Protein 1
Amino acid sequence: MDKPANSLVLKQPIGWLIFLLQFFSVAAAYFVASILPTLPALAEIMLNAVRNPEMPPPEPQLGSALVASTVVSSALAGMLVVWLWLRREGRLQEAIRLQAPESWPRTLVWAVGGTVGTVLIFTFGAQLTQALGLGTPDPSFVLALVTESPQMFALWVVAVAWFAAGFGEEVLYRGFLMDRLERLAGLRGRAWAVLVIQALLFGLPHAYQGMGGMVVTAMVGLLLGWIRNRCGGNLWAAILAHAMVDTVMMSLAYADALGGYGG
């Protein structure tokens, strides 16, 4: 049975300077890679503006496949920079624990628990944020892209739910980020402080869902980080839970869209 992370020996420390350098280099790679797939469309808009200066520039067309490609490219770029840093330190397998768990049944139980827990967080967390005046999470922009067509639904489930979000975000947040935080002076041995910090950072990129979306997503990040710790740092339970939740949400949105089309 995997040991909980808080029962393990303290990790070798890293300095705050190297942490900040690593963190911002990963964030920069993630951001730049999210823009790259949109460059041809942006270049066309700029070219049309030059050719027809009297015409107002058209709104960028963010199609489903294009947005999905930005999510995937971001995850790839972020994981590449993470791999380079950890390989340089010789700590890749120590930080990104993707080895087969000692017990797959136990891992699947944690994954199912994480899935159910996340659904409950979205359900009751949305009510809480609304009561607090923060608004409810609004993922309608993404879900509209997911339900654009059967082909786009399949693309989003495979490429985004399972690869970019389920695998990629867990490697970045519950793997790389938590490992880095666990090595910092002032945070070493303080498991709950690490959990809270990584959860808050996990919520920030979900600003497109509003303040309520960031708060609820941070709560989900807290749960997934706790599951990672309970699995001794192994990421598979968190990966499976994250991917299953996104798949369920996308599937429900698609089913609802089909009902709407049928009406």
Protein 2
Amino acid sequence: MDDDRAIDFVLNGEQHRLTRAQVLRAAGLGGPEPIRTHWVAIGELRWPPRQIFERALGVPRTDFISHYAIRQLRRLGFATSPLPHEPAVPPAAEPAAEPPPLGNDLGSAIKSFIDLHDFFGQEDLSSRVSRLEDRLEGADRETVEERVAPEGLTDALLKGALLVRTHAGRVNDLIHAAMIVRALPKILEPGERIVRRPSLASGNDGGRKFDLETDRRVAEFKAAQWKGRDTMRKRLLVADLVALVLERGDRRAELYVLGTPPIDYLRTSTSTVDWALGRSSPHLRQAYEQRFGSAALTVGQFTGGPAADVVLRDLREIIG
């Protein structure tokens, strides 16, 4: 399947472009939420269409319905649940179920993780795979095992990798929730009270504008580890900063991130806020323009100006 496949469409009067690669990258940022009715198959997992469409496009899921997301994701080649009045998906079209790995008790899971950690720590995987390819050239049934044995790709290692992957899809969601929970006792002040159910999963729903709302502050938490090519993370970070400025009311605003690169980006970037909000909801873009006009503020100018009193904090300094 061509990961560069792209589609153009109009959503709520706004022109958008979405690629298959964007959807795949979005799936790599964290695992799926529970399926209720509809699903879209990405790799070996099924996702709620609105969750993955929101994450890939950068538009809140309150701006569209599942049927709309399904139709666009189908255009990119992803299998989905049937829409009303469509026949059920035949068994052959459903994602193949992965056989459960053996030894899925806690002790096996811990050992599997240790084995994988040791395996990856010994040598760069690309170098090892390249050497394996050389070793296998000219091999036959009788000599395959002998040639691959020195590289350590055993049945046990494979089963361990399958076991770890079973749970790896939700690791990012776990990190987001755990970082907020572990930070709360260290950031809440005496007498401060959480006034709205916090949003511990990635992405806020329409009823919860912020990850944390207390009687004194509103706060957003970004647990992503930046890797150098972080265009979508940059857009989402700026959108959160703008939302904090626009919708905090009379409470103080705070933005928590993982590491210093996100903070450095906000303070020094010469990209415009208009660019950063290019895939945000029309509501947020309109609210920004109404408050600040059409002046092409850079991200750095916005952070040092209208957002100057938003506290930017590195979560590593709080939770260690």
Protein 3
Amino acid sequence: METIEIGSIKVDVVRKDIKNMHLAVYPPNGRIRLSAPDKTDKEVLRLFTISKLGWIKKQVKSFEEQAREVPREFLSGESHYFQGKRYLLEVIDAEDKNKVELKGNKKILLYCRPGTPKIRRAELLKEWYRAELKKQAPQLIKRWEEKIGVSSNDWRVKQMKTKWGACNIEAKRIWLNLELAKKPKICLEYIIVHELVHLLERNHNHRFIAHLDEFMPKWRLHRDELNSLPIAHSDWGY
């Protein structure tokens, strides 16, 4: 991959069929990517990056200081999050059927066969998170599609490495990061709005920001809340 190095800062360059340059810093470790028009001279890219060094350093520092979840063993007594709330996990031996359910506002119950290995307990909890996110998202997507005046053809959930959501504009397909199941509802809504607005404007330009300001005036607060929450200990990398 083409890169630019300025001191200790390394920037990955991705050339695309676009008109303007776009700089982004991704969690969890502050990876920097510059998207640029195909034929842009490398010296122009370097000078543009230098002009953004203050912003880049600020973004990288915020990711470095962001809290990380401790490694999980998926044993009773551990803290796990669901829709922004902290729950204690309780693992219960069950011979008949594996399942996960909430008990009030304090516990997540994980029923599984005795001796179930950690990797399988992790899978069971992940499957539950996926199912719960798939219950929550359709109504929110429908509501915001009506408000924004767009219509997606499809939406899906997956564990993503570098961002909370994505939009395939040609297919009109929305992707949501599985980790959003752990975050407050308003954070999920913000990502849904962000991705749906891409159906009006492909790039993160002034027009895109104007649409966000119109449809969700407090989107910056929701974005900052999402990015301030502890991120998963896994390698997934917003």
